[in-house]
Structure formats: structure tokens, C-alpha cells
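Teaching note: in complex prediction, the entire set of molecules is handled at once rather than each chain in isolation. The prompt given to students was simply: 'Predict the structure of this complex.' The entities are:
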Amino acid sequence: DAMVIQNPRYQVTQFGKPVTLSCSQTLNHNVMYWYQQKSSQAPKLLFHYYDKDFNNEADTPDNFQSRRPNTSFCFLDIRSPGLGDAAMYLCATSSGTTSVQYFGPGTRLTVT
Amino acid sequence: DQQVKQNSPSLSVQEGRISILNCDYTNSMFDYFLWYKKYPAEGPTFLISISSIKDKNEDGRFTVFLNKSAKHLSLHIVPSQPGDSAVYFCAASSFQGAQKLVFGQGTRLTINP
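The expected output is the structure of the full assembly:
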């Protein structure tokens, strides 16, 4: 089945230790998104790629970076995680011709 | 400034009855609205959508109603089933095909047997 895959599902990192979350998709979609979701809050868009075109949200901290080496893969790098970065990180894709986004299962990040 | 609001954090409904989830928005530029359903330990899955040119869209047990003048939409589930227990998010975009969605904070629906 075509899908959005996120690895790992659970990630524990130490305060200040860089961490990378990965997302892959078999939908061949043009657009890939990274969201941060904290408990009982709306998913918050961090950035998205339309093909190789990177779009950063104005309030996304510099601590968060992203890479999209090809259509299928997208990475979220957190350079120096703080305790406030503990959250669920959701990857999503869309075709670019519809607003419907397809989500992966998420990676729950714990910062110790 | 929260542009999409779901004011009820939780809702409990008896199995077989109607579930009504509500969503309000403030941005009059929003033109396309979506509902997502999320089970624990899974990502949100798309449920149903509606364009502002319509006031109702139906898909099986799920119907979404849009009241543009009130900037309000609702999701009706009838009859409610135990498998409908999940968190429901509404989302809005400026047009169908827009790349960005603005999400509400979700409503946890519990269906009681």
C-alpha cells in the first residue's frame, strides 16, 4: 500500500544532542510537510517542501532544519533539542493539486 | 491568534446516536475545509471535506455542514459506532489545492456502548 512512513516511532535524545527524524513516502507526492504537535494542541506546521522548494514558517525556530534529498525522503534535524521540543512530530504529503494531506504515524520525541 | 477553533475538547455519545462535532473559524479567506480523524499512536487520516460553494457534503455516515455567514462548520456522524472513538480535527485552507492547512486543536469523541 502506498503510504507515509516515519522512523523511528519513538526517539529519546538528551538535552542539546542533535537528532534526526526521517520520513519517506511511496505516494510520489510533490509536497512534504513537517508538523509539531504537543498534547491537546493543534498540529503546528514547521515547514514544507514543494519539490525542492523549501518553505519555512516565520515562527519556526532556527533550531529546526529540514532536508529533502529526493522526492521520497524528507528529514527533520533538531540541532540542539531543548525540553520544550518534546512533542509528536508528524510528516505529511500532498499531491500539490489538492489540499488533502496524508500523514505518517508520527515520531514521539522525548528530551531528557 | 487561533484561526480555527474547536471549543469542545471532548464529547461523549451513546452508541447509535448522533455525534456532532463543531468548528469555528475567524479568517474569511478560508475557502475549503477538511475533517481528520486520529487514533492513538497513528497519524491523522482524512475523513471528509467541503468547499465553500457548498453547504453540505455527505459520505456514508459522515456529513459536514458549512455555515459561511457564521464561519462555522460541523461534522455529523450517524449512527455513532464504537470505532468512531478518536480525536477529530477540523482544518481550513484558503482554496482547494492550497498547500497549507490550519488545524483546530481537536475534539476527543468517545462512543459509549
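Point out the following to students. Residues 40 and 56 of chain B are 29 Å apart (CA to CA). Chain B touches chain A through 27 residues (CB under 8 Å).
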